[in-house]
Write a structure and sequence with these properties.
This protein has 4 helices and no strands. With 90 residues, it is an all-alpha fold. The longest helix is centred in the N-terminal third of the chain and has 17 residues.
Length: 90
C-alpha cells in the first residue's frame, strides 16, 4: 500500500488529469487509465516527483536520451511531450 504526502497527491492528480486530457479518445479506456495510474503510483513510490518524468514513465516511454546519444522519437500524444524531448541536438 502506498502512502503519499498531500502535495505529492496533488502532483499525481495533476499529471493524471493532463495525461487523460491529452490522450486520443480511442486510447482512453478504463483499462488504459488503470495502467497509467499504476505506473504513476509506482514511479512516485520510487521517489519520482517531477511531473514531466512522471508523465513519461506513466506512458511507458523512455526518458530523453543523454547527451551524445542519438535522439529517439517520442510516441507520447501531442501536448504531453516537452519541447526538448524531440528537438534535434546541435
Amino acid at each position: 500500500m502506498y502512502h503519499f504526502e498531500p502535495e505529492t497527491l496533488r502532483v499525481l492528480q495533476t499529471v493524471m488529469d493532463d495525461i487523460v486530457t491529452c490522450l486520443p479518445r480511442e486510447d482512453c479506456s478504463q483499462d488504459r487509465k488503470i495502467l497509467i495510474a499504476q505506473r504513476l503510483l509506482a514511479s512516485a513510490a520510487g521517489g519520482e516527483r517531477d511531473p514531466t518524468r512522471l508523465k513519461v514513465q506513466a506512458l511507458g516511454q523512455r526518458p530523453p536520451t543523454p547527451t551524445g546519444s542519438a535522439p529517439r522519437r517520442s510516441r507520447m500524444p501531442a501536448g504531453l511531450v516537452p519541447e526538448h524531448v524531440n528537438r534535434p541536438r546541435a
